[in-house]
Amino acid sequence: MIAANIMTSGVITLTTGDKMLDAIKLISNKKVRQIPVVDNAGKVVGVVTPRRLMKAILPKYISEGMLEDVKFAPELPEFIENIDQLAFKSIEDVLEKEFVAVSPETHTMEIAALFVNAKKPAETILVVDDHKRLLGVISPWDIFKRLWEYSEKKS
Amino acid sequence: MEPQVIALIVFVGVYALLIWDKINRAVVSLLGASALILIGVLNQEAAVHGIDFNTIGLLLAMMAIVAISQKTGMFQYLAIRAAKIAKGEPWRILVSLSIVTALLSALLDNVTTVLLTVPITFLLVDELKLNPYPFLVAQIFASNIGGTATLIGDPPNIMIGSAVGLAFMDFVVNLGVIIPAILAGFLIPMYFIYGKKMKVADDLKRRIMAFNENEAITDKKLLVKCLIVLAITIGGFLLQKPLHLEAATIGLFGAAVLMLITGDDLQHVMEKAEWTSIFFFVGLFIIVHSLVEVGLIGQLAQKTLEMTGGDMKVTGMTILWVSAIASAFIDNIPFVASMIPLIKGLAPSMGGPDAIMPLWWALSLGACLGGNGTLIGASANVVVAGMAHKNGHEISFVKFTLLAFPMMLISIIISSVYMWFRYFAG
C-alpha cells in the first residue's frame, strides 16, 4: 500500500497572504489538526500547527526552552492578551516551515516509520507531487483505518 | 629555528586565533599543543607533565555535581525566594537576585548559575512589566564578583590555587572578605542609575508574592541527597589544609558519592560535562608549559623584575591592573595560565613563595573582576547576552561596555585600596 491509497485529498489550505483570523475560523469550524499553507503558485510552504501558535503567544524564555515548566508562577495576564494580537498576524509570521512531506508513491511502512521517528514534530504528513503541490494529507489514524479495512477484506 | 622562536610563534598564533574567535577554542589549543610536540619543542612526556590534573579533576568534579543537582530545581527555588524576600519591590529584587547569584557563583561555576537563574529573572521582570536590562547586567556582575570569592568560584582561581597549593579557606580569607564591598561598590551606582526610577504598582508586586517557590523543587529526594553531598564537599574544602588534601580529591570524592547515592545515569552526567572546556585547558597547559621549558617565561620574569625593581607594591598593583584590563577583552583563562609561571619566576628574587602571596591575590582579583569590563570579558556575560537575544532583548557591546567598564574600574579601585592596606601598607 502506498501514500496515494491512504491519504485524504481535497484538503483545506491557507495561502501565505491570509491573516490568522482566517485560520482561526477554519480551526473552529472544521476539525483539522494542522492546516497546510500554499503560496500563490500552489506550492506548499509550511503548515499552521497549534504547537507553533502556542509558541507565538508564550514568552520567548518559555517557548525557547529556557524554562521547562512554570508551575511555580502565577499566570501572566499578558499571555491571554497575546491571543488578541495573534488574530491580526499574517499567516507568514506564524508559519511552521519544518514539516514532513512524502511523495504519493511512498510505502505505508515508511510513513509509519516517519510518524514514529521524525525529528520534526509531525501531527499529519503531507503528500506532495514533484512540484511540491499538495495532493493530500495522512493522519496517524489514516494508516490504521486503511490497514484494518484491508485486513477485513482479506478475511 | 630556535625552539624559543617556535614556541613563541605557536603561542602568539594560538592567542590570535582565540581572539579571532571563529574556531572552537578547544580545537585551537589542542592544535597548538600537538604542533609543539610534533615539531619537537617538547616531547609528549614533558607535555603530559605540564597538564595540571588537579585543575582538570576539580573542574570535572564540579561539573558532575552541578549536572546532577541542577535537576532538583533548587537554583530556581533560590531565585524565586530572593524575589519574595524582597516583597516584590523591584530594586530590592535586583539586590537580592544579585546576592543569590553571587553566592551560587562562589560555590558553582558562573555559567551554570546564570543559565539557571536568568530565565526566572525574565519571568519575574515580565510580571512586573519592567525592562530586564538592569537585572541582567546586575546578574552578570554578581556572578563574576561572587566567583572571585572562593577557590572553586572561577577557573582562574582553580588554576592559581592548584599551581600555588592554596586551599579553599585561603581564598575566602584573602579574597572573600572584600567581595561584599566590591558587590556594594557595584550596586550603589546601579541604584542611582536604575534603582531610583524603578516603581511598580502594588498589584504587580502581589503577582511576585503569588509565586510558589516550593513548586520549583522537582525532586525532593534528590534535593536532600544533593544538599548532603554539597555539604560534605564544601566541608571537605573548608578542612582542606588540616586534611592535607588536594581540592580535586575532595571534589571527585563528592562527585563519586553523589553518583553512587543518586544512581544517576552515568552516561548522562558525563555528557553534561563541558568537554570543550576540559580539552581547552589540556592544550593550554601544554602550550604554556612549553614556554616555561624553552625559558621564555624565565626571561619575561627577569624583564618584569628589571622594570619593577622587584618592588612588591609596584608589582602587585601592576599585576592587578594589567590583569583587569586584559581580562576585559581577552579570555582570562589563557591569560592566567601564562601569568602563573611568570609570577612563580618572580618568587626567588622577591623573597620566596610566601612573600609573593599578595601577587596571587592581585592576579585573581584582576582576572576575575576584569571579566566584567566588556560583554566578551567572561563566559557568563556572553551566555546572558545570548539568552537576552533569544528573548528579544538585545544587549549591545557598546551600551554594555559604557556602563560596565567604569563599573569594573570601580571594583579594581576598591581592590587596590584593599590590597594596599592589607598587604602593602607599612
Relevant terms:
heterodimer, A: 155 residues, three-stranded mixed β-sheet, B: 426 residues, mainly alpha
Task: Describe the protein in words.
The complex is a heterodimer of chains A (155) and B (426). Chain A has 155 residues and is an alpha/beta fold. Helices cover 40% and strands 14% of the residues of chain A. Chain A has helices at 3-6, 20-29, 50-57, 60-63, 77-87, 108-117, 140-154, and strands at 14-15, 35-38, 44-48, 101-102, 125-128, 134-138. In chain A, the strands form two sheets. Chain A has a three-stranded mixed sheet. In chain A, strand 5 (125-128) and strand 6 form a beta hairpin. The relative contact order of chain B is 0.14. In chain B, helix 8 (133-147) runs antiparallel to helix 11. The interface between A and B is medium-sized, with 14 and 21 residues.
**What's the N-to-C terminus distance of chain A?**
17 Å
- Helix fraction of chain B, binned, reads over 70%
Could you tell me the number of beta strands of chain A? 6
The rounded Rg of chain B comes to: 22 Å
Biggest interface, chains and residue tallies = A-B, 14 and 21 residues
Radius of gyration over C-alpha positions of chain A, nearest whole angstrom? 18 Å
**What structural class is derived from the secondary structure elements of chain B?**
mainly alpha
- The helix content of chain A is 40-55%
Give a quick account of the main beta sheet of chain B: strands, pairing sense, barrel closure.
none
Task: Assign an overall shape of chain A.
Answer: globular
Order of helices and strands of chain B: HHHHHHHHHHHHHHHHHHHHHHH
- Strand percent estimate of chain A: 5-15%
Which word captures the global form of chain B? globular
Main sheet makeup of chain A: 3 strands, mixed
Order of helices and strands of chain A: HEHEEHHHEHEEH
Unreliable sequence segments of chain B: none
Spatially, the strands of the biggest sheet of chain A line up as 1-2-3
What distance lies between the first and last C-alpha atoms of chain B, to the nearest angstrom? Answer: 49 Å
Q: What is the beta-strand fraction of chain B? A: under 5%
Quaternary organisation of the protein chains:
heterodimer
Separate helix tally of chain B: 23
